[in-house]
Amino acid sequence: MSEMEVSGYGSWKSPITSDLIVSSTIGLGQIVIDGGDIYWIETRPQEKGRYVIVKLAPGGQPVDETPMPFNARTRVHEYGGGSFTAGDGVVYFSNFADQRLYRVNEGAAPQVITPEAELRYADGMIDRKRNRIICVREDHSVPGREAVNAIIDISLSGMEAQRALVNGADFYSSPRLNPDGSRLAWLQWDHPNMPWDASELWVADVLEDGSLSNQTRVAGGIDESIFQPEWSPAGELYFVSDRSGWWNLYRQRDGDIEALCPMEAEFGLPQWVFGMSTYAFESADRIVCSYIERGFSKLALLNTTTGKFEKIETPFSKIEGVRATSGQAVFIAASPTEAAGIVRFDLNNRRFETLRRSSELTIDPGYISVPQAVEFPTENGLTAHAFFYPPHNRDFAAPENERPPLLVMSHGGPTAATSPTLRLGIQYWTSRGVAVLDVNYGGSTGYGRAYRERLNGNWGVVDVDDCVNGAKYLAEQGLVDGNRLAITGGSAGGYTTLCALTFRDAFKAGASHYGVSDLIALDEDTHKFESRYTAGLVGAYPERRDLYLARSPINHTDKLSSPVIFFQGLEDKIVPPNQAEMMVNALRAKGLPVAYVTFEGEQHGFRQAANIKRALDGELYFYSRVFGFELADAVEPVPIENLN
């Protein structure tokens, strides 16, 4: 074995390059099982982020169901999800360019089945008995009016008029028919709630003509969040509720609500997108389910007759999108050392088979940093959570007395979570000698409702405190250099980043990826789904305008003394470009080092390979100039203003 080269942290040469990441990585999403066929979504950076529906038939190879230029992505709630469904070998999907529904038979060109209109569709299911799709529709047809959401039906031919089955609430999701088509369940919620704050489970009888009667609320309310209703093969209604303080499994039986396996674990997720699934019926009395304990996903089998809960050993630390049929379950899974993949679990021989990987790269373990779960003290005597990735590169060691720079990552949402899985975007840093702390600050999911509610009324405070305290904790342990701390984040994580740089003095640099700088502008210029989100996170507006002003970094640039780089998609409707531009202009005026990198054709988040590469390399270049370390490889420079 060759001797390790001694080189300063940040200057290590790594095989995990931005070119490697974008050329060999795809995104994986929504799984649908139709008979023996398995479908899933692939997001391909090399095709400008196109969402492609892929089909795997028994004994066959994966094939694309949606040809160029079709992009199977819906914009309902802007974040989408649940963009397709399948039945009897026919796929129905939403096309991003026009938001119309299309039907595609194997080998045939997609055929449009909805009219040209300002309408969007998501979360559909097929009602075979009545030859229709039941789905969520979002109506943007009236200028100046807030979009109108409803659960509707559409004939499979598309030749009949659409009909609203349920309307009146602000939001809907998860329409689900029972096995004989006689009852429909769904979720709904109203402003100012988000679905993880307060949502309701409803059911109704389905009449012969397909209309509904006897609509009844089953569960949910102002202090309860409901997730993923499903009907058992026997026609019993199952769902996830956090009424105990944890998202656990329940069912309705003989008019009563029964808890199935009470645990301090999360069987639910924040419904940022449609089509999420953590459990599925493999048979009449057996559920395959995933759940989260202390940030790690687990897999189990639940016998609904005996109540036996059997934990299954897996190599995975994240499991989502669970679907099942007799003898098998299919889900998306990843581990600390393996990238995400579509995984099939054979329940009979208890074997896992990867059907498709998000990356076919084989990375030498000598370049992989394995995450360490970290709990650290934070404000008010509480504990917060994170995953620490120390620098790791088999070819390099740092000088004896040097400590690595630390990059703190603040996830988006903010109601979301990070997970301890192999993400090449993190290994890009650690293999170059930069430590990473991926923080699940108070407000994150996966640790119970009370932890999630720490952020209520405290956005820009609790999240910032936890990121700062996590960084300080590592510095006090001697694991990182307390004088070279940086923070980065996208969307809500970008807001946390800007708040940390403005209102605290721990970090010496930062990167905002499509982040919020002005809470008032965000409140006044965002889409329906999030239009009341800040009321819970900050306070009612305009009544608590004082809080919005106090917590908006744009109003306090006099307190900012650290360099910042901004990355922004120019078609972002969730955090429009003016959010970044206001901050950049303020930093310019103050004479602070600042860089602003924009991307044509990108919305909220970057999907195109060239832009993902540019953002990674640009951020590395920025820190190298700020912290003064030499890069092992040349990267395209980013223009930095006010840098001497």
Structural features, described:
The protein is an alpha+beta fold. It has a domain at 5-17 and 363-627: Alpha/Beta hydrolase fold, catalytic domain (Rossmann fold). Helices cover 15% and strands 35% of the residues. It is built from 10 helices and 38 strands. The chain has an 8-stranded mixed beta sheet, with helices on both faces. A 4-stranded antiparallel beta sheet has the order 2-3-4-5, with no helix packed on it. A 4-stranded antiparallel beta sheet has the order 6-7-8-9, with no helix packed on it. Strand 18 and strand 19 (237-241) form a beta hairpin. Helix 1 runs antiparallel to helix 10 and helix 4 (462-476) packs across helix 5. The longest helix has 19 residues, at 609-627. It is globular and about 75 Å long. The mean pLDDT is 95.
TL;DR?
This protein is of the alpha+beta class.
Helix content: 10-25%
CATH architecture of the domain at 5-17 and 363-627: 3-Layer(aba) Sandwich
Q: How many individual helices? A: 10
Q: What is the top-level CATH class of the domain at 5-17 and 363-627?
A: Alpha Beta
**Major sheet: order of its strands?**
30-31-34-33-35-36-37-38
Descriptive keywords:
single chain; about 650 residues; alpha+beta; Rossmann fold; 38 strands; about 15% helix; globular
